[in-house]
């Protein structure tokens, strides 16, 4: 039951382009156990790891089905304040990542340079993207299905990284509304392609992530923080046209930042 609840919390956060499921796993104290379970799926103790992961996946599935329609409605009707809230979430998790990296003692000029390069990479990727953030793909072509497969692959890597949300990757790649719409309407063909990409990505990428954290922890954190900073620029939705709407957007931005900051701070309490 505990892992089902953990999965529900992870699922809710993975729907939102702000805090990753990996961050939640770290805050709740089972991040390394999660990565170990994913890496151990093809070991002789695979049954133990399946029993650990199955209730987590059940909880994530429950959360995705229960909350995807709400997110889809907000995107369609109130995207500006929603994305201000997302920006707040993203900004608020940065102090958590800096503390995890112990940046005051570990960061050198090379790490700050890596952080800037990672941020510029995200910005460049976002500007190269032609699709609007609110476009939902219909009647998908073969190329779009392939694109969704690799989007799922990349998003799965982000899902298990503390700080980078899989939904943020979907957003940067221009497929976030399509993914949310497919979940809320149970579009099996789209979900299957994305799901295959996510599963393959988790299995193959989790070992790389574990290796990077073991061998290049500080550089990995620097790159992650840069990716998060760059995403703030890309998903900024624009300036509100009216003062009341602008006040709402600013309030939601600070609420998102506060929630993310408190969530990250709780890991150290």
Automatic annotation (TrEMBL):
Signal peptide (UniProt feature, chain positions): none
Q: Does the keyword S-adenosyl-L-methionine apply?
A: no
Membrane: is it a keyword of this entry?
A: yes
The record's listing under Pfam families reads: VCA0040-like
Membrane-spanning ranges: 7-30, 50-68, 80-98, 110-128, 148-176, 188-209, 221-239, 245-264
Q: Which keywords does this Swiss-Prot/TrEMBL entry list?
A: Membrane, Transmembrane, Transmembrane helix
Protein name according to UniProt: DUF368 domain-containing protein
Q: Give the taxonomic lineage as stored in the record.
A: Bacteria, Bacillati, Bacillota, Bacilli, Bacillales
